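User: My collaborator sent over this chain with a note saying "see what the structure looks like." That's all I know about it. Can you take a look?
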Amino acid sequence: IDVTAAHLASQHPVTDIKTLEADIADAKAKQEEYAQKEDYESAINEKMRIQKLQAELDNHTENQKVVAKVNDVAEAVERMTGIPVSQMGASDIERLKDMKSRLEAHVIGQDKAVEAVSKAIRRNRAGFDEGNRPIGSFLFVGPTGVGKTELAKQLALDMFGNKDAIIRLDMSEYSDRTAVSKLIGATAGYVGYEDNSNTLTERVRRNPYSIVLFDEIEKADPQVITLLLQVLDDGRLTDGQGNTVNFKNTVIIATSNAGFGYGNDNDDENKVDVMERIAPFFRPEFLNRFNAVIEFNQLSKEDLKKIVDLMLDQVNKTLAKKDITLDVTDAAKELLMEQGYDKTMGARPLRRVIESEIRDNVTDFYLDHIDAKHLLADVKDGHIVISEKADSDDSKDQDKAEK
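Assistant: Without extra context I'll predict from the sequence alone. Here is the result:
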């Protein structure tokens, strides 16, 4: 509370009226003195100083009380600890109710996965989980490019207010026998004992409220899997220096595409149960530790239409930094979708198509037309062409003139 009060006091300083009045009188005397000496530059400076002091006097806050609210205290705690408590509180209950719809708006075509994650998070936040396990632990399995990592990013944004609140570990870097020391640090007597700043345990200790993402978990060394059993079950891990790190406030997500990528993934007659698919790659005790093993579906063309809109919104956010807007016609969106659709590769080819057909073309057009602010992407001769969009007022005037 003291820190909050000090922060508010610095933002709302109390004005000393008597001191201001004395400073104004002193400045006026100096102004007259400089004017008599014909030092007009100094006189103008004193005049500007008088105006500034007078403005402070007119807007004094001596009689205005500054009240510290709950959010002010929460923000002070967040600045000191890095814990996003400003996202919590009574409003957190309302946020939990709408979590599913917020995630579905950004993760397209994976409603079952979003629902499973939302239920687990809501159950934990409502206080109906037992023990000191992490907030949630999930194994995301499915083909490439269907939104496994994107769901983790959106979950970080929704829970912790920051899309970058992710501790991401690529398990291809943890496939050898030294992988354990990379996670918890070297033990005493081994090289690297003094330097553990980039280990998993140290990063979680510094950022206790975050998403821990183990990407392509099937590539990890078996000793790493053994280490994770304790994290998933007890919510804690002891590092190489003997310190116990608490994972209670983290969300553990592991991703894998092991057993996926076949052409008949969406064929109901030939569809294999997800546990049967991944059983050859993971130990049973490891799979049983997760709150949920979630299968991601392949994306349909209808899903890709929505993803096109999301990616174009990101393009517009980038262009907005230069006060540029871009409208894309339905024909251009259809062409992007056709060129970017690949059943086996998911949405990744679409991102490359938008890079080459939209971002690159906009860049070329911008370099030739620096002053253009309203752009239009349309299809011409089977290719996407960028042009300057005519203002609506100009088009109306032109229509009237034609009439």
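A starting point for your reply to your collaborator: The two ends are 70 Å apart (CA to CA).
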